[in-house]
Amino acid sequence: MTFDWVTFGFQLVNILVLLAILRRFLFRPVVAVIARRQAETEATLAAAGTARAEAEAEARRARAEAEATAAARHDLLDKARAEAEAARATLLDQARAEAAKIVAEGAAAREREAGAARAEALGRARDLASVIAARAFEAQPPGLSGYVARLTAALDALSPEERSALLGGGHPRLAAPAPLPPADLDAARAAFARFGVTPGTETDPALIAGLEFRSDTGAVRNSLAHDLDRIAEALRDDRAA
Amino acid sequence: MIDTPLSAAPAFALGPVTVTWPVVATWGVMAVLALASILATRRLSDRPGKAQAVLELLVATLDGEIRATIPGDPARFRALIGTLLLFILAANWSSIIPRVEPPTAHLETDAALALVVFVTGIVWGIRALGLRGWLATFAKPSWVMIPLNLVEQVTRHFSLMVRLFGNVMSGVFVVGIILSLAGLLVPIPLMALDLLTGAIQAYIFATLALVFIGSAVNEADAPRKEDRHE
Fold first, then answer.
1. Closest to A22 (Cβ–Cβ): which among B20, B86, B106?
2. What total of structural domains would you count in chain B?
3. Shortest CA distance to A185 belongs to which of A168, A167, A203, A169?
4. How far apart are CA A176 and CA A201, in angstroms?
């Protein structure tokens, strides 16, 4: 076995040359591309971090804006609600006032109409009473003799059976609104003498005026009160018809 | 093919200088590695292809190994350790080419490799500790250890050389003997085993070189660590 120093020298140089070659053409380019990619990755990560931070800031800003918008909406709604409540209250007050005014006006109108109606009814009643009274007074005879004549005529107008039943009843009497003076009583009794009866007397202020024959079986009405009743009854029958 | 692996056969002469076959084979390995490197790194991009991915994996693995052994920037030793690994691997595997004997099967090549590691360790030791500090490391833990440390400094690199030489040379030797005795196809399993042995030996040489260089550099880091602890 020999050791070739020339070969050793060649190999030493060869190794150093190979070291330089591989350093220049293999390791340096590969390390450079790795470093470049790492730098790009870090830059991308940094950019992503920045973008993320910006996105988070944007999201926070958007949230704040949304909250502000919600608060403003809430305030607007509250304000609108308050305004609506106020307007509603105002409208209700106005409506109540108007309704009260209408009711008052209606009541006043009704009161006026009722007053007018009452006045009209009173007037008509007054007119009617005037008419009734006028007609009743027109129908009254002048003086007691006239009432006696009308009373006897009424008795004459009765059928004999009715007349005898009336005259034959107990307690025949002449009713007058005031005690008859003796002269008038005598005149009246004289007129009744042809019917065979001498009536007594009776005072009835409700007759107002007139002279009526009454017995226990009936009566012959002949007074102002009776006439008034008849006229009023006739008027009621007319209104009913 | 040479008659004995223990001597380098001359290939040609350049005047008074005789160029042996291991040197020629080394040139071939260098040419292949250089050409492959140039081709592989010609179109590096940020989106790596398969070849680029393999290269980046190689560099990342190298950096990881270096960083695990020597704290600090792995770029200081990346080219040296990577060159040793790739060259020894390529040289060992050159045996699969007919009539080519691996350069590492000759002592001169392994000695040159060991010398590079030896000198690198000294240079980085002095660089890290200074000349006095580096010399002082031979007196640790006691001055009594100076002779032993000096001998160790030589013998561990010598063992580095002999280990590679013995493993590769023996493989070539055995294959040559069996080929001469048995026939063409019989040594194939042994050649395959040689490929495995060659890869392992390349890894072992590169790792031990890293450990030897790192032992010098880490001597410098140790006091700093103690300072930090204090």
1. B86
2. 1
3. A203
4. 8
Q: Quote the domain boundaries for residue B42.
A: 10-229
User: pLDDT tens digits for A26-48?
Assistant: 999 999 998 988 898 899 999 99
Contact list, B82 vs chain A (CB under 8 Å) = 22, 26-27
Does A6 contact B103 at a Cβ distance shorter than 8 Å? no
pLDDT score of B227: 42
**In this complex, do A19 and B20 lie within 8 Å of one another by their Cβ atoms?**
no
Q: Do A22 and B83 touch (CB under 8 A)?
A: yes
- Which residues of chain B are within 8 Å of residue A6 when distances are taken between CB atoms? 17-18, 20
Q: Is B2 part of any domain?
A: no
Place of tokens 């009209």: A120
Which chain A residues are closer than 8 Å to B213 by Cβ?
Answer: none
Q: What is the ipTM of this complex?
A: 0.89
Is B3 a member of any domain?
no
**Is the dihedral angle over the CA atoms B100, B106, B111, B117 positive or is it negative?**
positive
Q: What is the pLDDT of residues A110-154, one digit of tens each?
A: 889 888 888 888 888 888 788 878 878 887 888 888 888 888 888
Structural domain boundaries in chain A: 73-139, 141-240
Q: Which residue of B has its CA nearest to A23?
A: B79
